[in-house]
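My main concern about presentation is that the manuscript never shows what a single data entry looks like. An entry of this sort, consisting of the sequence and the corresponding backbone structure tokens, reads as follows:
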Amino acid sequence: MKKQHKTVNNLAIVSRRSVLQASAKTMFLWVAGASVLVVTISVLLIYIHKQFTFNNTVISYETTAASTLKDNFKAYVELKKNIDDLAANSDLASVRTTQSNDNLQVITDSLATTSDISTFAASIQNIIAPRSGVSLESVTMASNSIAGSGENPVEGMAKSSPIEIPYQIEAVGSYQSITSFLENLERTIRPVHVKSIELNGSDSTLRAQISLVTYYQPVKDVNISKKEISLE
């Protein structure tokens, strides 16, 4: 009888061990499954966040590009209207160098798009001065008065507005010839602003120190850029 009771106790212990082992195994599987699920969800959330950020960045750039295109189109319409008005301007037509030129060529001639410092000085010496009857002592450019001056004082300056190019001119002649010289400077197709005049001498022989500026406007560059957006 005692032996049978001992056998029953042994069977109960084995049964409890089996149940505990099964429970431990089940718990381990649950914990492992939950860990895998948490990791998977975390990775998925990180990917979704990156994708969301990427999409928002793309949308932002697309919105900016669309706004730029809209502004450019408005500027194009206004520019075309201005060009059409200038092409039909009778005042511009009256100052053409030759009849074969159009009004837009007059504009190009009047406001240089390249640094033609020596060309304008040569025009003063070879055309305006002889026509006026004055003798030029000197025609120099006051390069040290231009911001950022160097070998090319207009290089690297802003392209959004005309740039002043100052000159110092010393001319000798009669009062009438000096007056004619100033009038011819004003009539030149180039925009010229006489800033100061200093006169010394008599009516028959005057020495004029003239400070003036003309203008230079670089061609506006139009660049189409590309932006590559990557999902990191």
